[in-house]
Design goal:
The chain is of the alpha+beta class. The protein has 13 helices and 27 strands. The strands form 7 sheets. Strands 7-8-6-9-11-12-13 form a 7-stranded parallel beta sheet, sandwiched between helices. Its EC number is 3.4.21.75.
């Protein structure tokens, strides 16, 4: 009877979810607090997300009785529904929220606000920059460096632009030059191409009927969150502003040997798309997109985030963060979805991706860029949460990335960290084909253990952490090496169960800081916990300050690893400070966290800034038991890869049929004792306060 009443009186807009059921529990959503983007939004919108136990019919009836228009279930979140009102309604937003919160049938309600996006075109100096950007930078030239047609690798595929995919093959014109590519050809030689792996592009849609994508398109994992239908086809316009998702998709899954465009990194993987960047974006849209088809998708690739303007601090809202948590705990049959995220293009604005709660999340794999010359690009952001690097565009004459474009066309000009992240997603797809049992944390460990320093060694800032791993806040643990990663994955032992240790920092008597008095505050904490081998470290900070961008935050581990968690951002003049904000670092990966940690907060300007430090805590993620791949001692680095051809590397360095984990496939680097001191000193001079430079 209830169903009949509702169906007669209410016009229902029902969204049919194709995802599996999931028991969603309200609770602690993380530490992003007030930094959810509301401060950058002009106003709330006339939409609410409400939790109504009892099912859809009850939610419809409650909406009817309270005078709201029912807007369907929130995809992937049981008992969550959308309500809306017409703008002619005379109630204020607070009155609406109060009415919803006071109804006993409603467990929770939150009004939505618009998280505006700007697609990544050349960054504007205007104050009108929006709050989401597609991570793509455009250089001033589309000039192409023509590679030799005599190169043997040009003949591997017949695709028209394969010879321009310099980042997938050895394009050296002379033997004396180092190799600069992602080392995927040995993986192809062993029969891996991404088959059976499903990748979802979270973006502005994908042109799924494109000649180079249509055979790999996966309709089952695709959705349009902007128009609320099953077709993520991009909205056409004369400026081609909605080509971003199609470009990212092509990097991963362009079909091989069809004569069209190029070859995707995982050219037999299935590719889907969630269109969510071409309309009004809310926490509901992000939550639905990040979790769409979580029971079917293996890898999500995202090349967007909060504005890279050097003044924004923003992380996921409640639903988006819950979608991340659900994905890593329930996706892929409990092994966890893999989230690959572009780490940002705000380099020219001195931005720091630790102010981006998406790419710096412990649940995502944060990917930075390196140019064709192996250099840090002008748009790159420094960040202690960056895990690794893939190639992309760089300076004026550097080649860019080949991929599909809208209108069934091809492009030689995909750029920025937008282009780097899909390359990483494609390499991970190869790894999951090689070993489908890998968990989301296994993938992170594999990246740490096999990414390479030597191709990027000309860049200053490299250091060696307490267990011998190379790390740089520009590149993470180095350049992705597909051959090493897949070879190691084939004989991988799952990492031990994760442990989490949270320790509050002791209150300090003098918590005042200023740019004209006490310019820095040093806080020590002695840790004793069951985590013995670190993964991520989060420093949760609460700071009130008159100019947030003047602050730098530094962390020193018990084993002496020093890392800058937050660099000063000159354009950030906000007085909002930080409220329960996590600064994430992977620099101490593998270290024992037990002992004395030191946190330094510093303002080296002379601007008259002042404020105080509130409660802080250290969250240590890791394992009690040593991961198997670390038991044979520290990682060994050699020069084998950069000094060999692909053929030599396949024959001599990646014996796929006889892989021993005691000999991890790490293939770059110079001996430790040659340049450790030089690198450490160079790093200290550039990044750290004076007291760090004087340490041993």
């Amino acid at each position: 009877m209830l169903a009949e009443v509702v169906s007669c009186l209410v016009v229902i807009k029902t969204l049919i979810s194709t995802t599996a059921s999931y028991e969603w529990v309200l609770g602690n959503y993380g530490y992003h607090g007030v930094h959810n983007g509301l401060g950058n939004s002009k106003d709330f919108i006339d939409e609410w997300t409400v939790e109504v136990p009892g099912g859809e019919e009850v939610a419809q009836l409650v909406a009817l009785e309270l005078g709201y228009e029912y807007d369907g279930p929130v995809l992937g979140f049981p008992n969550l529904y959308g309500y809306r009102v017409h703008n002619k309604n005379r109630r204020t937003p607070n009155e609406h929220t109060s009415i919803l919160a006071s109804d006993k049938r409603i467990r929770w309600a939150e009004q939505l606000f618009s998280k505006k996006r700007a697609k990544r075109y050349p960054m504007s100096e205007s104050d009108e920059e929006l709050n989401r950007v597609k991570r793509k930078e455009y250089a001033n030239s589309n000039s192409i460096e023509i590679t030799s047609e005599n190169n043997i690798h040009h003949k591997l595929f017949n695709d028209e632009l394969w010879s321009y995919e310099w980042y997938l093959q050895d394009t050296r014109a002379a033997e004396g030059l180092p190799r600069l590519d992602l080392n995927v050809l040995p993986v192809y030689a062993r029969g891996f191409n991404g088959q059976g792996v499903r990748v979802s592009i979270l973006d502005d849609g994908i042109e799924h009927n494109h000649t180079d994508l249509v055979e790999n398109y996966d309709k089952e994992i695709s959705w349009d969150c902007n128009d609320q239908d099953s077709d993520p086809y991009p909205r056409p316009d004369e400026q081609n502003r909605n080509s971003h998702g199609t470009r990212c998709a092509g990097e991963i899954a362009m079909k091989a040997n069809n004569g069209k465009c190029g070859v995707g990194v995982a050219w037999q993987a299935k590719i889907g798309g969630v269109r969510m960047l071409d309309g009004r974006i809310t926490d509901r849209v992000e939550g639905e997109a990040i979790g769409y088809a979580w029971d079917k998708v293996d890898i999500y690739s995202a090349s967007w985030g909060p504005n890279d303007d050097g003044k924004t601090v923003e992380g996921p809202g409640k639903l988006a963060l819950e979608a991340f948590k659900r994905g890593i705990s329930h996706g892929r049959g409990g092994k966890g979805n893999i989230y690959v995220w572009a780490n940002g293009n705000g380099g020219r604005h001195n931005d720091n991706c630790n102010c981006d709660g998406y790419s710096s999340s412990i649940y995502t794999i944060s990917i930075g860029s390196a140019s064709q010359q192996g250099l840090f690009p002008w748009y790159g952001e420094i960040c202690s949460s960056t895990l690794a690097t893939a190639y992309s565009s760089g300076a004026y004459k550097d080649q860019k990335i080949v991929t599909t474009d809208t209108n069934d066309s091809c492009t030689l000009g995909h750029t920025g960290t937008s282009a780097a992240a899909p390359l990483a997603a494609g390499i991970i797809a190869l790894a999951l084909q090689a070993n489908p049992k890998l968990t989301w944390r296994d993938v992170q460990h594999l990246i740490v253990w096999t990414s390479e320093y030597s191709p990027l060694s000309a860049n200053y800032g490299w250091q060696v952490n307490g267990v011998g791993l190379r790390f740089d806040v520009r590149f993470g643990f180095g350049l992705l090496n597909a051959g090493a990663l897949i070879a190691t994955a084939l004989n991988w032992t799952t990492v031990p169960q994760k442990q989490i240790c949270e320790r509050p920092l002791e209150p300090i008597e003098n918590n005042k800081i200023s740019s004209f008095g006490a310019k820095s505050i040093e806080i020590a904490i002695n840790v004793k916990c069951n985590v013995k081998h670190l993964e991520h470290v989060e420093l949760i900070i609460n700071i009130q300050y008159t100019r947030r961008g003047a602050l730098g935050v530094y962390l020193d581990s018990p084993l002496g690893t020093k890392v800058q968690l937050l660099s000063p951002r000159p354009k950030d003049s906000s007085n909002a400070g930080f409220v329960n904000w996590p600064l994430t670092s992977v620099a101490t990966w593998g270290e024992d966290p037990n002992g004395r940690w030191t946190v330094v907060i510093q303002d080296l300007t002379s601007e008259g800034n002042f404020g105080e430090i509130g409660q802080m805590s250290l969250i240590l993620h890791g394992t009690e038991e040593m991961p198997f791949h670390m038991r044979q001692g520290p990682r060994k680095y050699t020069n084998a890869f950069i000094e060999s051809t692909h053929e030599e590397y396949i024959d001599n360095n990646i014996p796929f049929n006889d892989i021993e984990l005691s000999k991890p496939m790490s293939v770059y680097e110079t001996p430790y004792d040659v340049d450790d001191e030089l690198i450490r000193n160079h790093h200290s001079k550039y990044y750290f306060p004076d007291y760090f430079s004087n340490s041993d």
